[in-house]
Every structure is written in C-alpha cells, then in structure tokens.
Amino acid sequence: MDIVCNAFSELENEVKQEFFEDVVTAIRDINDCVSELQESVNENVIDRMFRAIHTVKGNCNMVFLEAFVNATHRLEDLFSAIRSKEIDYHSVYGRFAIQIVNLIELQLRVLIETDRANGDILEKLNEIIDEVQSAKADQQVITAEKAITAIKDGHFTTSMVIQDSDNGHAFSFMDATDMEFFEYLSSQHQQNRSHFQFYEVCSVLANKLNNMLTASADEQQFHAAIIFLHLVQKVEPDGIVNEMSVQQCIMASGLLSRMAGWSEAAELCLQAMEFHNGNGAPKSLAGADILPAAQVLALSFDFAFQILAAIDQPYKQKLFAAVKNINTKKDTQYKAKLIQRFNQLIKAEYLNEKMF
Question: Residue 226: which of 191, 258, 190, 260 has the closest Cα?
C-alpha cells in the first residue's frame, strides 16, 4: 500500500533535498561504522552508529515522515540496547542495520521523486526489527541472520528462512538454489550420528578421487550425487549403515532425474553399481562405458561402509582392512587405474594423518 505525506510534499524542493542529503550522509556513516566494527568492537564506534541512526530518525521527524520515524526508532532501540550492553554486539547486527537503512534511503528517494512511498515495506521493516529485538537472547543472532535474508529476498518473513549453520549461511526455502536445498537436506539427514560419520568418510575420499580423474565430474553434479545416494541409504536399527545397493542407485537417480539441470548427477547415481567387468547393474555396463566418477562414488561408499563397520577398531587396523578389501576388487568391480589412484591417495594422505 502506497503512503503519501502531504506536509512533506508541500515543502520546498530545496528543503527536501537538503533533508535527503543529511540522511544519506548519516546512512553513509552507519555503513562506515559497520565496516570499522568488523575489525574490532569499539564502544565509541557503536556510540557513533547509534547517533547516526538517531540523526536519520530525527531528520525524518522534522519533515513529518512518521512512517519512516517508526522504522528508524525501532532500529535505534536495538542499538540503544547494544550501546548499553544489554545485547552483545555481533557483526550480524551491523549487516542487519545496513539492510534497514539502505531500504529506508531507497524509499525516501522514491518519495521525493514520486510523492509516494511503499507503506507495506516500511511496516514490514517495523515488524522485522521488533522480531529481532524481542527474540530470546540465544536466538537473536540467528533471528537477525534470517531477517537479513528475508529482507534481501523481499518477503520479509523469517519463518521462510532456514539458518543452515553447517554451511554457514541462511537461505529462503522459496528462493534457495537447488544446491542450497540439497545441502540443507543433507545436513538434516546427518543429525543421525551414523549418517554423519558415514558422509564425512565417504565425501572426503570421493571428492579427492574425483579431482584426480583425467575426466572429473562437474563439482556440483558430483556433490549432488553424493548427497542423494546418501539420503536414500538404508540404516539398520543398530545404527549400521548398509552397503550401497542397486535399489539405492535407482532411487537416487530417479529423484535427481525429475529435477531440471541434474541429469549428470542422476546418471552418476544410476551407474554407481556398474562393475568394470560388466557384472554390475542395472544396465550391465562395462569398462569405458561406465563414467569414471560413478566408479569413484561406488569405491568411496564401499570404503566408508567398511570403515564404519569397524568403527571400534584402531585407525590403521580398519584403514588397512578396508584398503585390502577394495584392492581385491581390481579388474572386477573397479578399474585398475582407479585402484592405483586410490592406493596413491591412501599412502600420500591417509597414512600420515588421521582422516576419520
């Protein structure tokens, strides 16, 4: 809903322009303060930032812009609490303030040019600042992070935003990229300890081996294949993760093939149980007809299964047992060149450092 302010519109253009320049200067100072606070938390800088927000509010009040006063007053209250140390400063509050004041500047510019501003945006800013300030102490930083994303995405609804702490960012469900959503699903799946341990062992080896291939798979396609094969993997009641199965490969491939842009990942999943000698499934492919990265997936899942099955054994004992078992599958399940690369990697990295 657009709002108009006749008292403001009736002011002389010179007065409106001077007002706007003062606000822009204060907002520029807010941005500068946030940059300085990234280096270190300084009480003087926080005080300066509070006063700059107060300046924006005061100037809006002087020219009868009540809707803008309300939004900046709420932001001022948040930084008053930070200034008095009721709330510990965190860099997310600075980024949140920048999102707010930049939107206020934009709406002021629109108001000056058209005599109208977007009342819905200003009201939503009020609500989202209140939400951050009223959040429980241990949730305020997370709420502010969600609020930043909600503002950027234009829906201003924090309940539509997921804080994916495992991957270090927040994203909106409705606006997330496929990979953001895949990674979120994976992180939730890994809440189970067995799934987490399996994924860690498998994904580290798989990515290292993929990078060693002459024709490596696309990084995102390969990552998606790992995630979906893991999502559909069966876990027994005792927590033991099962070996890869043909059904698992078909299910993961089926899910990915139904989404545009993930055909390579789908094919990698589908071929993960094909054997180098042609005795695999579901297509009974052999040799060069099998994607090298699909063999990498199979070997990495095989390795992780064996490591987790011997989880209570000493590191090198279970490592050597898993390597020995995989080497028996050379020229049958796995191509000799892949086994060679696998052995090189184990010698170079896994023997000298505990990798899991």
Answer: 190
Q: Which two tokens stand for residue 23?
A: 């606000």
- For residue 292, is the peptide bond before it cis, meaning its omega torsion is within 30 degrees of 0? no
Same-domain status, 307 and 160: no
Q: What is the rounded CA–CA span in Å between residue 39 and residue 27? A: 19
pLDDT digits (tens, 9 = 90+) for 284-301: 999 999 999 999 999 999
Distance CA 157, CA 175 (A): 12
* pLDDT tens profile 76-89: 999 999 999 999 99
Q: Are residues 161 and 198 in the same domain?
A: no
Q: List strand residue ranges (DSSP E) for the chain, in order.
A: 2-3, 117-118, 161-164, 169-172
Cis peptide before 314 (omega within 30 of 0): no
- Comparing C-alpha atoms, which of 33, 1, 3 is closest to residue 108? 3
Rounded CA-CA distance 171/162 in Å is 5
> What angle separates helix 315-327 from helix 292-309, to the nearest 10 degrees?
140
Judge whether 143 lies within some domain: yes
How many angstroms separate the CA atoms of 199 and 300, rounded?
10
Domain harbouring 250, CATH code: 1.10.3210.10
Q: 145 and 243: one domain?
A: no
